[in-house]
Amino acid sequence: MAIDTGATTSTHDHITLTLDMERLVQERVDELVQERLKSLVTESVATAMKKDPAKNKVAIIASKGTLDMAYPPLILASAAAAMGEDVEIFFTFYGLNIVKKGGAKHLKVAPIANPAMPVPMPNIVGMLPGMTPMATWMMKSQYFAKHNVASLEDLLQECVDLGVKLIACQMTMDVFGMKADDLIDGVEVGGAATFINFANEAHTTLFI
Q: Which of 16, 39, 75, 113 is surrounded by the fewest CB atoms within 10 Å?
């Protein structure tokens, strides 16, 4: 019996062509799927970044009312704002003295139980009358002025100019008998919930 080799070859070629076409179609489908997936991921990331409430937000709590502890929240806030961050400072308890009218100018640094001071002194010496004003004078004149450190008043104004939101704690103001008129210009009055709403969306929260 004779075998038609021509027909066999034609059938084989047809099968091979069909398989090649299926492979090419599958490869193209895979490419399109990968491209679409990559596009979806890119879009999702971009959308998430736009909706991310923690993007570029810094929340700072200022709770201390001494000269040395008033600088950190203001320096950090002004630096963050200068970098394009959305910044809020919540002044509570003794931190209210920083935003009280004339308060920043009269903040002092206590030498008692403060061994980190540049010129440490025994507590017994720090307890003597006049030592707190002396330590404050030394800090301002011998260290801050010598190294051209901005005053607290200038830092506060810089924060305001940079758009930092300054919030005075309503509860603390009530406890201390303070009114809104007692605060420097540019300070808002709000409760803890006001700050927490902002802090919940912040990617950096500092307690000072």
A: 113
